TrEMBL record:
Pfam families according to UniProt: Glutaredoxin, GRXCR1-2_C
InterPro entries given in the database record: Glutaredoxin, GRXCR1, Thioredoxin-like_sf
Name of the protein described by the UniProt record: Glutaredoxin domain-containing cysteine-rich protein
Coiled coil: none
Top-level taxonomic group: Eukaryota
Domain Glutaredoxin stretches: 108-161
């Protein structure tokens, strides 16, 4: 099916010209009916490619692939995970980060966290331990990094990359690969911190653990403001440990 379109161009010698444009029966241009591979979406401007299964294809009346379902959601999730990974890789270069918990509700988790602490203590390595029981934001942080909800602890990251949990660390230690992998990392120096006793947290110096920063009276009612210097447990990071 064809359509004739008249147009004028001042740069052309002819005052009127005729342009021939081909169309399919469904009204779409032939240029837009190009088929793409079913399992890959071509990207421009160096944007990341998003894979899609053949079941999510949107087929047009002529049998051509018009798009993919949920492509925007997939792209947003892909970019979010990539951004989170890049941020942590940059901030944790040359660091060992261990997510643990000090809550003794689940015996197996307590034993695994104790094993991880003992393992790095024997290696004499400096570790940034993040207790999800002491600070709930660490649980949210771990969930974002692994892309799951309520991610299990313990979990170890080296240079911003996931190394695994207790079983993975135990296997690496038994084969000797862990010592080789971490041989150039910073060693632990000095005794246990005298300020926090090695817990890396102290009572808030502003509210002293009450989590209230100020009380004001407004029309016979006492308004309590939340302290912004501590977490949900009235604790803040040890300043001496953060210096080191």
């Amino acid at each position: 099916m064809f359509r004739f379109v008249k147009y004028s161009d001042k740069r052309d010698c002819a005052a009127n010209a005729v342009r021939l444009t081909s169309y399919h029966m469904n009204g779409e241009s032939a240029a837009s009916s190009q088929q793409y591979p079913p399992n890959q979406i071509l990207e421009n401007n160096n944007r990341p490619a998003i894979n899609a299964s053949s079941g999510s294809e949107i087929i047009g009346p002529t049998g051509t692939v018009r798009g993919f379902k949920n492509i925007i959601t997939q792209r947003k999730e892909f970019l979010r995970n990539s951004l989170v990974k890049e941020i942590f890789e940059e901030d944790e270069e040359g660091k060992i980060v261990v997510y643990t918990t000090s809550m003794g509700g689940i015996r197996s988790k307590v034993d695994e966290c104790a094993f991880i602490r003992k393992l790095f203590d024997n290696l004499g390595l400096k570790v940034d331990e993040r207790d999800i029981f002491m600070h709930k934001d660490y649980q949210c942080q771990l969930d974002k990094r692994l892309g799951v909800q309520n991610a299990a602890v313990p979990h170890v990251f080296v240079n911003g990359d996931s190394l695994g949990g207790a079983k993975e660390l135990e296997n690496l230690n038994e084969t000797g690969e862990l010592k080789i992998l971490l041989q150039n990392f910073e060693r632990r120096n000095g005794p246990v911190c005298q300020v926090c006793g090695g817990f890396r947290y102290i009572n808030c110096v502003h509210c002293h653990g009450s989590k209230c920063s100020r009380k004001t009276r407004i029309s016979r009612q006492i308004s309590v403001l939340r302290c912004t210097s501590c977490n949900e447990n009235g604790l803040q990071r040890c300043p001496e440990c953060d210096k080191n």
